[in-house]
Write a structure and sequence with these properties.
Shape: globular
Length: about 240
């Protein structure tokens, strides 16, 4: 496996920050592009793996990945409404599930049906409130990326050696045991590495990150609604202003 250095971590953190900024403040404008990129990645990976399973020829795998990525990107754009419905349904279903857990409600047939109904209503609501759902979900996802990137740079002196050590430990066990055996048996981390990770990702850090993500989500929603996601003005109104 390739070596993970601090320079690579810094580049990854910059990419995470850039992705977060685009999602948080321009999510509505680039939604179709994000769908296409997501479909491209999923389609390319799935088709590439399928090509490798059928034939060990790398050329066939690459051609399969290219074709699968193209098909995936096109399908994601064509399935725009299905994706929106899925986003709303999954969000509502997850909220319903956590409400059951928080209130101590057992997952009986009635509660499961209630969660499914909530998911269905969430999907329908997402289709009705397309702009709001896209703005809210993109701002929330972008805020998480931004918080992670900021957290890394704030604690870079501590996190960089911990992350490189974690990567080296995992890579070493995969090289020694093979990926299947390594994942089945679990990764044994040194006490120093485990304690360092526990201190870096403490409960206080998670609370601060959650508050930061919430604040950035609200800021992203405000920016998108007032600037980047504003609907275009009607042509008649623009003509009247020009006159």
């Amino acid at each position: 496996m390739p070596e993970l250095t601090e320079d690579v971590l810094n580049m990854c953190a910059m990419g995470v920050l850039a992705t977060g900024a685009v999602l948080c403040f321009l999510g509505y404008r680039v939604f179709l592009l994000l769908l296409a990129v997501g479909g491209l990645v999923v389609g390319a990976v799935a088709a590439g793996l399928a090509g490798l399973s059928i034939s060990e020829d790398q050329t066939i795998a690459i051609l399969s990945a290219v074709l699968g990525g193209f098909i995936g990107a096109v399908l994601m754009i064509l399935l725009y409404f299905a994706v929106l419905f899925t986003i709303g349904a999954v969000t509502a279903g997850v909220i319903g599930y956590f409400v059951c857990i928080y209130t101590g409600t057992a997952l009986t047939t009635v509660s499961v049906v209630a969660i499914l109904v909530a998911a269905l209503l969430g999907g329908i609501l997402a289709l009705v409130l397309q702009r709001f759902i896209i703005v809210l979900t993109s701002s929330a996802k972008g805020s998480v990326f931004l918080v992670l990137g900021i957290f890394y740079y704030v604690k870079r002196a501590t996190l960089a050696p911990l992350l490189t050590g974690l990567y080296a430990a995992i890579a070493g066990e995969i090289s020694e045991k093979g990926p299947d055996e390594a994942f089945r048996s679990g990764f044994a981390l040194s006490p120093e590495l485990s304690e360092g990770l526990s201190r870096a990702f403490s409960a206080t850090s998670f609370y601060l990150m959650a508050l930061g993500a919430l604040a950035l989500t609200l800021l992203g929603v405000a920016v998108q609604y007032t600037v980047t996601a504003r609907p275009p003005k009607p042509k008649k109104e623009q003509a009247a202003k020009e006159e």
